[in-house]
Amino acid sequence: MLALSLVNVTAAFAQDDNSSAKEEGNRNVMLNAASANGPREIQIGLPSADVNVLENGLPVTYATNPHSVNTIWRGDASLSHQGLLKIAETAITTGNIGYAVNSFTQKGQKGFNGTLNYKSNHFGLQEFSLNMNGDLGKDWYYSFNMYQDFDPGTFKIKSTPYQDRTQIYKALLTKKYNGNRGEFTAMYKYANSHNVYNYATQSAPFIYVGDGSVKEYGDFKLGTTSYLPIDNEITYRNMRTGKVEQTSLYDACLNKASEVTLMNSYRFDNGLNWKATLKYDHSRGAMVYQTPMSIIDLKSAANQGVYNYKYRDIDGQTKAYNGQYIQTRMSCLNAGKIDEALFTTELSKKFSTSTFRLGVNEWFYHIDYCSNTTMYDQSVPADGSYALRVWDAKQRDSYFYDFNKNASEYYKGSENKLALYFTHDWDVTNKLNLYYGARLEWQKLKGENAAVKNAKGEFVGRFADYYLGATAADGTKIAPADLSYNWINYDFSVAATYKLTDNFGFTGDFTYIVQHPKFEAFAPATLPNTGKISVPLGRAGIYYNNSWLSLTSLFSYISKTNNNSTLNLQHGSEIKAAPMTYDIQTWGWTTDAVAHPFKGFDFHFLFTYQKPTYKKYETSITFNDGYVGKINATGNIVAEIPQILIELDPSYMITKDIKLWTSFRYFSKTYANINEAYYFNGHWETFGGLNWQATKRLALGCTVVNFLNQTGAKGSIAGAELITKDEAKGIKNQIMTGSYLRPFTVEFTASLKF
Predict the structure, then answer these.
(1) What's the per-residue H, E or C state across 158-203?
(2) Most buried among 43, 204, 469, 624, using CB within 10 Å?
(3) Distance CA 719, CA 293 (A)
(4) Taking CA 731 as the corner, what is the angle to CA 728 and CA 732, rounded to the nearest 5 degrees?
(5) How big is the chain by its Cα radius of gyration, in Å?
(6) What's the average model confidence in pLDDT over 92-102?
(7) Is 530:483 a contact under the CB 8 Å cutoff?
(8) Lowest mean pLDDT among 5-9, 275-279, 343-347, 499-503
């Protein structure tokens, strides 16, 4: 998935012991148009599939594939604080690119305190979050947390009653010592999650009109009709053992985590502050993808007599399938056993005009991972009914085929990062503030994968019934290949704010990040480009502040070299993986403003113009019939990314206890494939709500998601990467599949303090 856009920044770069000073304002992090249960991705202009989330200064999960953030963390009552770390702060303290959601667990306080949060929607969501904390006397404190989510989603599926069933428990014990100068906390967390929504909501059929718009396919309603077959079972070949096995989709996406965290902080007499956090996590991470591939029109003249599709009815009787369309789907069962030990320690001291911080990361990650893939075909019902699994009796006698042929993955081993970093926030004069920092990191990878070479030194690639121990057509024995790498990474950042007057000034920052591939980049059938990945991000502009307006306007540049990617290219009914490395860059202009024109009314405005483009984006692959699929997207606008982004966030306090708010987000035209052949017109994502502080202890709220009730497609179109602009000119009113906008949803919330 590519996610790219520029970001707004505030004019203040000050850093101190208060975590909010390191954070970005004006962002509704948890107001998410893509998900009902996770943080919004704040895009920064780079290809990314990660949402960085920290809890107590450490990553919630070291790698989000296969252990996604939502399966182990929620923005619930267990948190005392949530914010959004600035890009420079994320780069220096974690070595990662982009914003990070910053959160801290609620510790025990004096007396007895409790918070119970409840959330529901008109589709039947039931979400509960409870925190209870207090003191045990003699400077001992406790905190207990429970989170329960029963989410049926926005349409019914047959494999399970819930599209998200997650439970998270936390228990903390804190001891304050030496006159409250020191504080030690031990925390245990257990999480159990089935993230069914990840595969249940990935795609749906629609009619691509040809002018950037789509219309619904028959009675299929985007966002409220299921595009999954009734069957819950899936058959695959185990990549490790070669055995053909069966599981349910629900069981395949089981995530479990058992985690222990130790935290200590101490304030010395000389003003020096010390913090140390250690976390050990033992978990099973899992993620299931149900990727749509080609659509076959069985009624077309070219396909008459070519196929003989069958299905089994409710009684198990074999019958002929007489529908018009068939969709091929690739199922990826990603799962891994994970052990990670993460340790961060920091020393900081605040002087009269500056704050200095020195920190160390020692992060160890071990994983035994594979992705078993399998193909099956399904019907494309126009009446809104559940899809049927079908098979072509001319080619096979069962539903599932091409085990591990396409996107299967394997790697096992460890990744270790040892880093030293510092930051210095310095008020040079009463008009000039400088913030700068640097990070030096040693990254070590050691393990094995399945990037196997033949006697000629060429990568074998995947084939049907691929597994460790199989034999390729050329006689190559498939065996794990050892890998070992040692790299030095580094980051540095500098930011400056100059006050020309009390209200007006200049602001700018520059961050430069050098990385190397993460362990997960070694999962496919070929080795990634192991050259350095460099990311320069520069921004410069002006700011203006007065009693009712805060405004920042910036020009920005960001790029990234050596992006590793694997495209699953499709020709006819054949799919082949094409590994590639490319660069990406964009220039942009961003203006951010927060206004308070009159009492009770607040207005946030964000405008971004950008032109993100591919660099060195070329690949080709030869299919079995001799067809050579070529892509040259150099200079093209990055797929799925709008060139204009607008956010409008007005709110008004009707009374001192009642707040009315809305949020409008505009995304301009986006291309739906790499060749700029298909595109989707611009659209609005809308939110609105009413918050009422009913009593001192009870708060109620109502939120409406997509209150304009916009329907339509977004993202990319399945199986369309090789389609060119010339080929697309004649394509109108054709059935396709892709992602879609989150449907109209009414949510209700309640929060009780006791």
Answers:
(1) CCCCCCEEEEEEEEEEEEEECCCCEEEEEEEEEEEEECCHHHHCCC
(2) 204
(3) 5
(4) 135
(5) 27
(6) 87
(7) no
(8) 5-9
What is the amino acid identity at position 609? Y
Chain-centre distance of CA 18, in angstroms?
27
Residues contacting residue 105 through CB under 8 Å, at least 6 positions apart: 55, 56, 78, 79, 80, 143, 145, 170, 172, 187
**Amino acid type, 215:** K
What residue type is assigned to position 315 of the chain?
D
- Distance in angstroms (rounded) separating the CA atoms of residues 77 and 59: 19
Instruction: Compute the distance between CA of residue 164 and CA of residue 161 in angstroms, rounded to an integer.
Output: 9
User: For 39, phi and psi rounded to 5 degrees?
Assistant: -70, 150
Which residue reads 């030496």 in tokens?
A: 178
Of 176 and 24, more confident:
176
Instruction: Count how many residues are written for the chain.
Output: 754
H or E element in which residue 539 lies: strand 533-545
What pLDDT does 618 receive? Answer: 83
In one-letter notation, the amino acid at residue 637 is I
- Percentage of residues in the chain with pLDDT exceeding 70? 93
Q: Could you write out the three-class secondary structure of 205-258?
A: EEEECCCCCEECCCCCCCCCCCCCECCCEEEEECCCCCCEEEEEHHHHCEEEEE
Pairs from 579-583 (Cβ < 8 Å, separation ≥ 24): 579/524, 579/525, 579/526, 579/528, 579/619, 580/617, 580/618, 580/619, 581/528, 581/529, 581/616, 582/614, 582/615, 582/616, 582/617, 582/618, 583/559, 583/614, 583/615, 583/616, 583/617
CA dist 220 and 128 (Å) reads 32
Closest CA to 158 of 328, 400, 389, 332: 389
Q: How far is it, in rounded angstroms, from Cα 120 to Cα 228?
A: 24
Residue 202 has pLDDT above 90, yes or no: no
The DSSP line for 300-341 is SGGGTTT--EEEE-TTS-EEE---SEEEEEEEEEEEEEEEEE
Side chain identity at 679, as an amino acid letter?
Answer: Y
